[in-house]
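1st attempt posting a full record on here, be nice pls
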Amino acid sequence: MLSTKPGKEAYVEPLIDGPGYEFVVKCGKPNNEEASRHGTKLARGANFRCIMSGTPIAPNYIYAEAKAGRLGARLMAIVAEARRGRVYLNPTAAHEAVAREAKPNWAPDVAMPENPRWFSPPLYGLTTYGDLSPTASSWR
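the predicted structure (as tokens):
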């Protein structure tokens, strides 16, 4: 869900196209609002389902892939400020390319706590605060 404000609801829906997928921004209330709120999250921890097949993905697999640097990021939507509030736009290949090319001059390199009860990004291979940025090399 991008917006739950009454009369201005917007959400993202994956569009599966053969071996690939893209995200489409839709305005209004989704058919299954509960499913849209949760997305691919199934339960606490790293319990997700594949958007392509609907198959649950084991947390240990997600953690291992993340620590090996094989998780990536996709641009799902663009939220822009307009005169009368926010507008929600579909991302294009050009938008995604620009986002991936962004190279900040600086990123914090302070280590995060390793206790997963406090903070879980290290379980996903994100060990510094700078790794939380989608422009970090760990997200490529």
